[in-house]
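Hi support team,

I've been running sequence recovery on a batch of backbones for a student project. Most finish fine, but this one hangs at about 90% for roughly twenty minutes before it completes. I'm not sure whether the input is malformed or the queue is just slow. I've pasted the structure tokens below so you can try to reproduce it. Let me know if you need the job ID as well.

Thanks,
M.K.
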């Protein structure tokens, strides 16, 4: 783009992306913009435009041009889908606004047409703006470059320009420095050095800009490349660690996240510093990337820019996190549609993660290769010693692979073509010898993926090598992840390839499906190595008794392999297992076992969290499904690893206790009545442990604390919690408090727990839930226990709202006071919740409610199973509706899976009998559905409207 103006004013000759069809003239017309500004000049008198009135008119012209240009850029983004061109167009628009203001200020505001040598100034774009790309909400980084020190004119021009840009609503980062200062600061500050590395002249003195370039290259860049590369790699690693060190988070940061734009920027910074190039074409010409890899890189860059620009346009701000609430709209903007098994947003996010994987592959190889290259440049004796250590040597037993500086590498470029089995053998050798992977080897693997065909998939040796890697005793997840990132895993097991980079559009799963599966393998490996004994005492105790590890590892690797299909993924996954396992070398019995584990991999979790484990029929039905003790052990291990791999904080002590209880209750049924400890023995052992932990108490108080609870409490609650509850009840009794609460926070899990002690009553849980909802608190879990003296001990777990524990505890105190008001009848739930009612979940989530009524799951009780979209006050509304239906809640099992709840209530009628009759069931179903469809209760019958219940509590 050629821009000219008055004589003596020099501008940048072209935009970095000129030559491509950017249609920049449709964004802004430089001549028309200047004509509009020149028309504001009231006279030819010097300084005639330095009035507030003229400045206001200048601002109006700039605003109109900026708004029109951005609207045009957004329209073109929709039309051609080009993310990089969009970023270039916005950058070009910004260039023209700055040039026009600079020109106008010099000529008509400050009347400085003849500049002295000291008044020369160049305005540079630096940082991301220096690359000639801007997202709609990006910061604009400017450097006002001076020959010497600042002059009055330079300060006035800079101030005039900056205030106009700020008034336009733009975020501007700026610095004013001389050439000398810029060079000196770049030598000691890598951030400044990086910004100036990407400098670009917008307007002003071109010679000044050239002088900075000459001195920067000679005094800053020359001879310091190794330190710069090390700093950028360390900066990248720190950024990745801060973001969770995975590119597979389901709400990724498009700019800063692993596999995002910043990784591309890191590559360009290093390339520009080391190879003195700044385009992907130049990287291909330099031999860093093949032509195909250069194309992949270009597509990735364009896609990420498109996503980022759409995000900024949609939200009207610099939004970098691709959160759930905007993912559907971004998917729609990019033209994705739903396919069987995958929604439009899930298809979009799968594409995103595949792109992030490409970025990770390319930048990882590039940066690792540079790291290796720079490591060879160490001079002197130290360099000689390191060269000896780096000297490659053949791995014993093979001529195809070498150990090169602690990394496995190929002996030559024909290793895989000569024997495709080597594409699996390299991972087996790396696992056996505990080696990392050389970047050259990874690059050659990616370029050889076409060799993985049906012949290789059916090759017995290849399959045996794969099983060896999968069941590695040290760190199978590490090698499987490298195998996945290199593309081998998805090609060798095509059904696994279908779930690579696949996300599930919900708030429960934190990672993509493939990342979740690999993390579950990591959990199993840690369990086998004895690293989880403190957290998982039961599974750690019996995992060494597993006779055949292979089916367990295979089942865990593929338990979610059928996600994204229209049919039930557990059933479809079992069918895949029946086809895959024989190919992998498993016999008929092992294949049947893997298929069963995959088909029923959710059963134990569901029973433990959503069923009454004190109901004998629950245990008997579960035992009938499991059939053998070996299967029970395998399913327990798989369930634990599966839950722990979902995401941070998903696994907790309460879930662990439920799994342990279910295992302990089922074991004797599968062993003909024999168990290492019967139910009664375990109860007595738990009581003895509690007595021992309360040994400092007097005997009478200690026995009272033990006698307060029924058997189910001792079998369900961890010992540390039992001690805490005992102290809590003792303190409440000492203060003669009928109603009491205690709260504690858990930053790691992101929750706050409130324990309530109160007289038992059918509406108690409803009132507690209402008190929480009235404060806008979301209940993630609830446990209810009836004590032997007629009181209830209810524990509710709330999602955390505040960062500081003190704020969370104050919120818990307010909630407790509200619950007490409800119990005393001073407040009513509908009025309280109405004041706070607002949808908690994004409208992006759609989950139709489902109400199931079961009489066959328990011999004594009716089971109400409720699934639906969570919102504030839901549990209060559900329990209130159940009470209004004249039902007595005997136990409740509250489970929250992100935006979805699965609440299970064991109930009887007021006579203590099961609920029978089709008409009664239909009425229950309609009433509970109305809680989801009509949360304000406007459609409910007046006869079942909740009414406050006074407990007559005196605190």
């Amino acid at each position: 783009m050629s821009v000219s103006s008055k004589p003596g004013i020099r501008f940048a000759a072209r935009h970095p992306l000129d030559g491509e069809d950017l249609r920049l003239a449709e964004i802004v017309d430089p001549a028309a913009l200047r004509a509009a500004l020149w028309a504001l000049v009231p006279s030819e008198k010097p300084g005639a435009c330095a009035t507030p009135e003229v400045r206001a008119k200048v601002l109006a012209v700039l605003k109109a041009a900026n708004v029109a240009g951005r609207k045009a850029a957004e329209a073109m983004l929709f039309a051609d889908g080009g993310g990089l061109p969009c970023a270039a167009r916005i950058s070009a628009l910004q260039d023209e606004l700055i040039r026009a203001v600079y020109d106008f200020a010099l000529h008509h505001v400050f009347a400085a047409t003849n500049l002295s040598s000291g008044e020369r100034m160049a305005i540079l774009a630096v940082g991301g703006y220096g690359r000639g790309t801007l997202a709609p909400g990006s910061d604009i980084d400017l450097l006002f470059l001076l020959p010497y020190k600042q002059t009055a004119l330079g300060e006035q021009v800079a101030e005039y320009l900056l205030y106009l840009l700020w008034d336009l609503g733009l975020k501007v980062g700026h610095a004013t420095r001389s050439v000398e200062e810029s060079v000196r600061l770049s030598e000691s500050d890598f951030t400044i050095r990086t910004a100036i590395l990407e400098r670009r002249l917008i307007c002003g003195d071109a010679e000044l800009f050239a002088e900075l370039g000459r001195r920067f290259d000679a005094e800053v860049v020359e001879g310091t490349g190794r330190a710069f590369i090390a700093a950028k790699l360390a900066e990248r690693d720190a950024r990745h660690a801060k973001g969770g060190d995975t590119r597979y988070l389901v709400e990724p940061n498009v700019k800063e996240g692993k596999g995002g734009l910043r990784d591309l920027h890191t590559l360009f910074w290093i390339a520009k510093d080391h190879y003195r190039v700044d385009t992907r074409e130049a990287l291909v010409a330099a031999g860093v990337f093949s032509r195909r890899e250069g194309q992949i890189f270009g597509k990735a860059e364009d896609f990420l820019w498109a996503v980022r620009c759409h995000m900024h346009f949609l939200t009207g701000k610099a939004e970098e996190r691709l959160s759930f609430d905007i993912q559907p709209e971004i998917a729609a903007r990019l033209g994705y549609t739903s396919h069987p098994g995958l929604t439009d947003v899930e298809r979009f996010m799968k594409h995103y993660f595949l792109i992030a994987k490409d970025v990770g592959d390319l930048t990882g190889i590039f940066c690792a290769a540079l790291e290796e290259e720079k490591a060879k440049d160490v001079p002197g004796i130290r360099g000689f010693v390191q060269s000896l250590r780096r000297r490659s040597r053949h791995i014993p037993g093979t001529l195809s692979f070498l150990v090169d500086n602690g990394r496995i590498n190929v002996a030559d470029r024909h290793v895989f073509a000569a024997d495709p089995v080597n594409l699996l053998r390299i991972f087996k050798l790396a696992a056996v010898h505990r080696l990392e992977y050389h970047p050259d080897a990874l690059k050659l693997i990616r370029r050889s993926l076409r060799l993985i065909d049906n012949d290789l998939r059916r090759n017995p040796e290849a399959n045996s090598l794969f099983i060896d890697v999968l069941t590695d005793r040290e760190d199978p997840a590490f090698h499987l992840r490298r195998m996945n990132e290199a593309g081998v895993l998805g090609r060798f097991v095509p059904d696994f390839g279908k779930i690579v980079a696949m996300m599930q559009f919900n708030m429960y799963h934190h990672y993509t499906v493939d990342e979740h599966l690999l993390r579950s393998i990591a959990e199993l490996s840690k369990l086998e190595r004895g690293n989880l004994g403190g957290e998982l005492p039961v599974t750690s105790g019996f995992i060494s008794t597993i006779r055949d590890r292979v089916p367990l590892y295979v089942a865990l690797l593929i338990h979610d392999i059928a996600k994204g299909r229209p049919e039930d993924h557990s059933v479809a996954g079992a069918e895949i297992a029946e086809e895959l396992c024989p190919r992998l070398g498993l016999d008929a019995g092992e294949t049947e076992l893997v298929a069963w584990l995959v088909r029923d991999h959710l059963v134990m979790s569901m029973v433990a969290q959503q069923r009454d484990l004190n109901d004998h029929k629950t245990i008997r039905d579960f035992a009938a499904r499991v059939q053998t003790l070996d299967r029970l052990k395998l399913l327990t291990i798989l369930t634990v690893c599966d839950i722990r791999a979902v995401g941070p904080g998903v696994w907790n002590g309460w879930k662990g206790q439920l799994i342990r209880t279910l295992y302990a209750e089922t074991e004797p049924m599968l062993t003909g009545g024999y168990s290492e400890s019967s139910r009664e023995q375990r109860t007595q052992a738990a009581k003895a442990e509690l007595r021992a932990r309360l040994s400092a108490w007097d005997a009478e108080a200690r026995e009272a604390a033990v006698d307060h609870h029924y058997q189910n409490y001792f079998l369900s609650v961890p010992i540390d919690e039992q001690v805490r509850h005992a102290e809590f009840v003792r303190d409440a009794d000492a203060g003669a408090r009928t109603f009491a609460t205690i709260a504690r926070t858990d930053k790691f899990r992101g929750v706050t727990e409130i324990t309530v002690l109160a007289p038992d009553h059918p509406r108690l849980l409803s009132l507690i839930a209402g008190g929480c909802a009235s404060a806008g608190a979301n209940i993630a879990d609830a446990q209810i226990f009836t004590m032997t003296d007629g009181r209830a001990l209810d524990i509710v777990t709330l999602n955390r709202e505040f960062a500081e524990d003190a704020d969370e505890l104050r919120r818990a105190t307010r909630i407790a006071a509200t619950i007490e008001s409800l119990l005393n009848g001073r407040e009513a739930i509908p009025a309280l919740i109405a004041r706070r009612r607002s949808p908690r979940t994004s409208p992006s989530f759609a989950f139709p409610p489902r109400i199931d009524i079961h009489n066959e799951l328990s011999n004594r009780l009716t089971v109400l199973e409720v699934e639906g979209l969570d919102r504030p006050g839901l549990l209060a509304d559900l329990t209130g509706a159940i009470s209004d239906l004249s039902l007595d809640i005997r136990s409740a099992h509250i489970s929250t899976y992100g935006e979805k709840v699965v609440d299970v209530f064991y109930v009887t009628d007021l006579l203590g009998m099961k609920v029978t009759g089709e008409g009664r069931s239909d009425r229950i179903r309609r009433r509970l559905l109305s809680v989801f469809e009509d949360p304000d209760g406007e459609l409910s019958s007046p006869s079942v409207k909740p009414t406050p219940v006074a407990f007559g509590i005196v605190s």
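--
Follow-up from support: It reproduced on our side and the slowdown came from queue contention, not your input. Residues 1-16, 378-389, 838-843, 938-955 have pLDDT under 50 and may be disordered. No action needed from you.
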